[in-house]
Design brief:
Length: about 150
């Protein structure tokens, strides 16, 4: 189970993938953390940056992500980490009409497929807890739960 916290700064997660990444020894792909909240089934995706170089002996993947891109609501989530398999464009082998090619030659080409590396659970500490800055009456103590719906 992963523990993630919404906010500012950078979050790091480690994953021992269920299958070996296609980019072992040559990490050049795009990685994503896809999430679905258990309560209301809201979903989304976060870009991940690979910070280590996995090998066949040590296939561990260490990712960094921007905390502000995480879901803002606290709760349990089902997460899936995927890699995008892409092909770089090459002169003479690309059959895309020039006027339709909306990418730089140095960038990765269109996504050809995705590969699921890991399925896991996550607890996200979000920002759905309100903060009081001013009390109107002397008795404003209470407890409540908030739900995203």
């Amino acid at each position: 189970m992963q523990s993630l916290q919404y906010g500012t700064g950078t979050e790091y997660i480690n994953v021992w993938p269920e299958i070996t990444s296609s980019y072992v020894g040559n990490p050049s792909g795009s990685y994503f953390l896809n999430y679905i909240q258990d309560y209301d089934q809201s979903s989304g995706s976060v870009n991940l940056t690979l910070t280590n170089t996995p090998s066949r002996v040590d296939p561990r993947l260490q990712f960094s992500l921007d905390k502000s891109t995480l879901p803002t609501y606290t709760g349990n989530y089902t997460i899936t980490i995927t890699e995008s398999l892409v092909v770089r464009a090459k002169w003479g082998t690309t059959n895309i009409k020039f006027s339709l090619a909306n990418f730089k030659w140095s960038d990765a080409g269109p996504k050809t497929s995705t590969n699921t590396l890991d399925n896991d659970r996550a607890w996200v500490s979000g920002s759905d807890v309100p903060s009081f800055t001013q009390y109107i009456s002397p008795n404003e103590e209470g407890q409540y739960s908030t739900y995203h719906g």
